[in-house]
Amino acid sequence: MRPRLKTPTRWLLAATAPLAAPLAVTAAQADSGTTGYGGPGNVLNPTAQVMNRARDNDGLSIIDDVTRTPTGLMYPVPFRTPDMTQSQSDPDWWTQGWFEAGIMGTFGQDSRSAALNEYGDWKNGFTVTGLGFSAENRKTALHASAYGQNLGRTDQYYQVDVGRYGVFDLQAYFDSIPHTFSTTAKSLWDGAGTGNLTLRGGLTPGGSTPAQVNAVAAAVGPSTLRILREKAGSSLTYTADEHTELFLKISDEQRNGTQPISATFGYPFQNGATQLIQPIHYQTVDVTGGVRYKEQNFQANLAYAGSFFRNDILDLTWQNPGLTSNTTPGAYIPQTGRLSLAPNNDYHTVKGDLAVQLSPASRFTASLSYSLMRQDDELQAPSTGAGLITSGANTINLGQWNSASALSQPTANAAINILNAVAQYHYTVSPDLGLTVEVRDRDEANRTNYVAYNPQTGQYGYIAIDGGLAPFIPSLSGIYQANTPGSLVQIRNMPFANNELQATVKAAYRLDTHWKLDLSYENDTIDHTVREIADAHDNIARLQVSTTGYEWGTARLSYEFARRIGSDYQSNPYTPYYSSALPGYIPATPAGDPAFALADLRKFDVANRTEHVLRGQANYILSPRSDLQLTGSVKVDEYDAAYGLQATHAYDVTAAYTYQMSAATTLTGYFTYQNQDRGVANINATGSGTSGSAGSAGYPLANGWTETVGSDNYTVGLNAHHSWGVISLNADYTFTRARTAIDYAFASTGAFFNSLTPAQAGSSFPDITYDSHALQTDVRWQMSEELSYRLYYRFNYERVVDFHYTGLTAGAINNNTYLGVVPETYTVQTIGLLVQYVF
Questions:
Q1: pLDDT tens, 67-93?
Q2: Considering the entire predicted model, what is its pTM?
Q3: CA 106 to CA 122: how far, in whole Å?
């Protein structure tokens, strides 16, 4: 495992080092947009203030404390920023510094809940919520600043910036974000966080019983599954002259921790499924550099971007408890299993773009990029076992499949190349009419070519899940048996790729002083490789009417119609990648193999589709001190599909009200409702016959079923702010309610293998519900311009009810093993007393 940086200081030094040399001989213009850093912000500071301050009762204007955006909405009351202090020894320098620290505590029902701590750190005790300084020389334009928040916590961040305004800027940063998955996981294995999981004492690989598994699970204490993402980066920009700017950025992101992952040696009712603990030891290095050139009527950019992902643990091996329904004496039960984890990979792209003002009325822009994606990790052997398994009348010796010698090539040699080209021409016909023509071309070439062939045995295929399926379904052993009819297995990778040509025409026409009309038509031609349709055409027409300049406010209404039509649908385009393409292949019956899929089934991303989208927005100025904003949309997708995804309907509406009694007193409230419905239909296959048509022996109508999923989401939010001079109060409350209903119908019990009676099956699952309450208040006493005290209070409640987790506990259930990872309801309160000093 590679050594890793442990502290923010070492992170920043490492990230800044590549830029130190250029800084010594060059300079750069400030451009935080090149850093790839989203800036400060965490659960304690969601507004991303560099310095936590009270609102400024003077507002944004000395004329009126109410100011509005171009769309008519009121600007929020700004935060008060203290003035900088002029240096006595060097009057050209102005400085400012601050810190905020105090005591915080979180208590209540399950304050360790994974949901509460998913992206934040709520531990108790002393905390430095923020500190920093800034300095600028108002004669030389030199500047420097540094700040940090939540020092020493897992959601901390820091940033340092030095430069000269208009000349150069060097920035370095470090931020950290936790992601907690569970605090209640109970593992049957030792070695969590590594690539090798060994069963705890009391369990035997391949020979444990459910009682033994439950006993071990009961004795194991709960553990936390969490990933910590830490990212450090730096950027440098330099203005070489009035036309040329150079920029460079680099970032290093590391993710370390554990998360749940599932594995199996068969179907759940056979060898069972199991939940494991996956190790996460990722590193991603991103590098971007380039040059910008500009003149009065010409601009051009040339840039390179590279991303390099590395995983310290490329596979996960675990010992199998051995829970199985295969009780035949001497039956093969895998003792170990292995999962391949995320592979190392590289990404490179070179992009150039330009913009030319051809005349006062016309403008041309273009962009061209070429990207390379590469992955060449060592491939894993098909099996970890060494026993014998049966595949019908054949026997497979796993000893001939458990080493790299069983592979046709040692590494993946995976490669994808992508060419993107964009050209746009805009012409202003008149002050009221503008026309735009745009063409986009994306060509993707998947050059990955792998054949699953074992040189030691002369056989095609790859052992399926370490041989666990073979005793139950010999045809699913994963190995092609040339002498066995219907031995259908995948033997090659499928080089999925899409080529897309997009042409768009737009017109913008101003009807009068207040009204504007926008029209556009777009045609997308998509060529698919290894898909059910060879090509598709998506035609999209848009119409938008908007109005501005009225005393009452602004409004916008748009409608979009899209129709996608593809070539003839082939339910099985994958034959060249299966053993059925090999010479001498014997079909399952003289009439052929069972149908690969229901012929009438349509995959939604390539199916013919008709789409309607209606969007509206209105901003109303109800009074000089109050606003009302209404937004909403309706989206209807209808698929030309008797089976598969048939339709989706979604709509939402939001109303927001703002009242500024004065800069000292404001009230904001909003309500949002979202709804979505989806309908799916399918037929359970029998494996009989060769026809894939609905109603055939392979897909009898009696095995048909339908499902509808509907979700409703409500969110209500309130914010109140009031200031009594040096005392101010800010309160935020948010309530969210979500409900998902899943209903289904079936023609007969054949839709679910006759495993239940109609009464047992019912017609719906219990609703999935989510409820959340969050209240946060801040009471601040601004004792002086420099010193303030802040009393912080937060109440959180979250509850998830999901039938998928009903009765789920750590241990064995029907030959399946679980970690006991379930939604963790919580009701907690957080109280903090903080002091801030500005100097």
A1: 888 878 888 888 888 899 999 999 999
A2: 0.91
A3: 6
